[in-house]
Amino acid sequence: MGNVYPADWNHTILRHHAPKIGSGITPTGGSRVYVTSGVPLIRSQNVLHGALDLSDVVYISDMQHQKMANSRIVPLDVLLNITGASIGRSCVVPDNLVEANVNQHVCIIRPADDLDAAFLCSFLNSDIGQKQIDQFQAGGNRQGLNYEQIGMFRIPLPPLPEQRAIAAILSTWDEAITLTTRLIDALKRRKQALMQLLLTGEVRFAEFDGEWETLPLGKIANVKRGASPRPINDPQWFSETGRAWVRIADINASPTRFLNQASQYLSSLGEALSVKAEVGDLILSIAATIGVPKIVNIPACIHDGFVLITGYSDTTNGDFLYHYLSMLTSLLASGGQPGTQKNINSELVREIEIPTPDIPEQQKIADVLTIADEEILYWSSIAESLTKQKRGLMQQLLTGTVRVQVGER
Question: What domain range is 132 assigned to?
């Protein structure tokens, strides 16, 4: 492992400290055996990093539960996903879940008396534990872990009081991250509600009145589809500097309404065969990830997976237009054409009906929604900071680089 542990810590393998390592089975009949209520059947989607999510749990009958007696779980079992995209996610069964089962994608690890469940879960979810999981994957067409490999995981084993103290410290960070994440989710829901109320005129500010006129986007702005130099992979189109070549991945990676960076740049030859977007211009994705608007904040070019929206009429505020198109993202995405890659065309974009209240009202609506966005961004940065702090703390505590003082050893 490359880690040097304190002299009073045991460095051992998991099977020496877990009397049960095993998983469930797929019930005969698959999903047809699920019932509307009964015994919870834990699947891989229910096992998150450090938490058990039962929001979409399925149920099996007590009779089926009895048939799967070997995969019953009890409080303080540690659950580990062993197949698929969620491989390596681990959580502890809470005290209040006294009767449940697991399917074949979830491994039950029942710690012995000298191994704290929360400590083990923290270790499995740490960078050190995840590295072992990556190394032990069975490979083949479907990644997976088997019980022998899980039993061979090398784990640090501090004295039990220290394990519990370490787990308690890390739990404090988990609680802070969870509370912050819930706040972010609530702020996002509030933002969606504000968009629906303000952008449709359902709720108006007291100082404004009058009817809203609605016009097609093509009547209040210029809509131009991007262009791509061909063949697309020819290196002559690209350079280390120049105008940013905006990709769908770039807009997905941008947490704000602004596009501030890109991963590729065009040469002068590439620029000549694309469509330029200047700082302050609005772009909208129309392929793959559909309906995402961004305000360009760097000199850029867009390919044919985007449209450029410029030249607003004097009845249109650019920030208002950005927020209105953001409200329509899900609707536009559902209008994509079937096939290997969804897309919409520029004509459909031109036909989007845009309300045009007076400019001062548009600006006030945009300002309220921008503040909501900034609040979400602020708390998202707090959550990211807490997550990074926890990762660093895990590395220090789980290797003994930093020791926790406890009353007894």
Answer: 10-156
Task: Report the CATH number that the domain containing residue 269 is assigned in CATH.
Answer: 3.90.220.20
| Residues forming beta bridges with residue 356, ordered by sequence position | 213
Q: Going by C-beta distance under 8 Å and a sequence separation of 6 or more, which residues neighbour residue 195?
A: 323, 326, 327, 369
The rounded distance, in Å, linking the Cα atoms of 144 and 87 is: 7
Q: 335-383: per-residue pLDDT in tens?
A: 654 444 567 889 999 999 999 999 999 999 999 999 999 999 999 999 9
Q: How far apart are CA 57 and CA 36, in angstroms?
A: 10
Q: Which range, of 85-99, 101-115, 331-345, averages the lowest pLDDT? A: 331-345
d(CA 97, CA 64): 18
Helix (H, G, I), strand (E, B) or coil at 28: coil
Burial environment of residue 34 by CB neighbours within 10 A (0 to 12, 13 to 18, 19 or more): middle
Reported as a single tens digit per residue, the pLDDT across 52-86 is 999 999 999 999 999 899 999 999 999 999 998 89
Cis amide prior to 75 (ω within 30 degrees): no
Question: What does the alpha-carbon distance between residue 121 and residue 90 come to, in Å, rounded to a whole number?
Answer: 6
Q: Where is the domain boundary, 134, 156, 178?
A: 156
What's the pTM value of the predicted model, to 2 decimals? 0.82
Residues 378 and 258 in one domain: no
In the 8-state DSSP scheme, what is residue 16? Answer: G
Count of domains for the chain: 3
